Amino acid sequence: MPTYRFSVELSESLPMHPDETPIQPAELRTFVSDLFQKTGMPSSDADSTAEVLVGTDLRGIFSHGTRLAPNYLKHILDGHMKAHPQPKVERETPAMAVVDADRGIGHLAARDGMQRAIEKARQVGVGMVNVRRSHHLGAASIYAMQALAHGMIGFTTTNTGGPSVAPFGGRDSALANHPLAWAFPTREGFPIVIDTAAGVAAWQRVETMRIYGQKLPPDWCLDKEGNPTDDPAEAFIMFPAGGTRGYGLAVAAGLLAGALSGGQVPSRRERYNAATDSEHTFTAISIERFVSREQFLGEVDEMIAACHRTPPRDGFERVCLPGELEWEREQQWRENGIPLHRDHLTLLAEIADRLGVKVFW
Predict the structure, then answer these.
(1) Which of 9, 72, 92, 226 has its Cα between 20 and 30 A from that of 130?
(2) Number of domains in the chain
(3) Of 29, 64, 235, whose CA–CA distance to 158 is shortest?
(4) Is 286 among the domain residues?
(5) pLDDT tens for residues 33-53?
(6) 16/123 Cα distance (integer angstroms)
(7) Sorting pLDDT into bands at 50, 70 and 90, what band is 342?
(8) Is 11 contained in some domain?
């Protein structure tokens, strides 16, 4: 089985980059938890936050994992985010809820929001929870996948930050790069996990490409003057994914997670205000309320088999399902260590020095 790491095309298999160091997940979790505890965050919350961030790295989503920990820690230290919030339920029925996260870290608000949705789905079939006054939640797929442990389908989207994505046909930004993620249980092996963004890529992925010295595809971004650019450092406005399709997803996510939570749409916000307000939507679906589990999984099996038996096009090693490569990475890296770039480790070391935590690598 090849070793997969970050690349523009997920179908590529690449050797360890010379600027990467393998880091053991357990050591990284302890280290990241220690960092958050230094801010006054309770140890259980710090452990949960570290689990999410390292779990994101394990799936190869470096753009949304521990590399963002320094940003979150600085937000807490600067008073923009609470280390020990007191969330409260503002509206609730058997099928839905709206929760005020009290400006706590988004990862904990998201974990608790999906758990509440799961509990509601267990009772009435479908549970939907919107969370407001939260913070950036990292990789949306992590919370959609929470539903898998309960045999359910999960969905997550979020409304974070100000405008950074152009509407279809436009040269300036009016929408945010909202993520949307679905997780579907399978009979065995990898689950089907779809984690996409309304823009052509996540902004943190653009940053990842910068540190690896990669150029952007020519149809991804514009610079501040509205001109096309392939330089990640100059990218300022992103095109919607698939033209009108991503445009529609950006509008839907902003309204579903933002407006429906009592928040604001991106055009009312400053571009970089994820530290002050984010809203999230979590949905859990109990399969058995709709169809027998065996019948559902039988159709899942057929979809997987149909995709796997499709001959690959030139330039592709094989045909994979969404989430399959990430699952393979996780199995490999749990054993062999997570390959973290030196810039990634430098960011962690700098915040560790500020907080008085010793690095272990």
Answers:
(1) 72
(2) 1
(3) 64
(4) yes
(5) 999 999 999 999 999 999 999
(6) 47
(7) very high
(8) no
Q: How many CB atoms lie within 10 A of CB 150?
A: 15
pLDDT digits (tens, 9 = 90+) for 97-115: 999 999 999 999 999 999 9
- With beta carbons less than 8 A apart as the criterion, state whether 124 and 38 touch: no
β-bridge pairing 96-100 and 126-132: parallel
Pairwise CA distance, residues 169 & 240, whole Å: 10
**Residue 79 domain-assigned (yes or no):** yes
Measured in whole angstroms, how far is the alpha carbon of residue 361 from the centre of its chain? 26
What was the pLDDT predicted at 270?
A: 78
Q: State the amino acid at position 214 in one-letter form.
A: Q
d(CA 130, CA 274): 17
Q: Is residue 229 part of a domain?
A: no
The neighbouring-strand residues paired with 237 are 222
Contacts of 198 (CB under 8 A, 6+ apart): 165, 175, 176, 177, 178, 179, 180, 240, 241, 246, 247, 249, 250, 253
Residue found by looking up tokens 């393998």 in the block = 22
As a whole number of angstroms, the distance between CA 7 and CA 11 comes to: 8
Output the CA angle 141-143-148, nearest 5 degrees: 90
CA distance linking residue 50 with residue 42, whole number of Å: 12
Query: For the chain, what is the largest distance between any 2 Cα atoms, rounded to a whole number of angstroms?
Result: 55
Whichever domain contains 188, its CATH number is 3.30.1370.60
Residue 219's closest CA among 208, 210, 230, 209?
A: 230
The CA-atom distances, in angstroms, between 232 and each of 222, 236, 246, 327 are 10, 9, 20, 28
Is the model's pTM score more than 0.85?
yes
C-alpha torsion sign, points 38, 43, 46, 47: positive
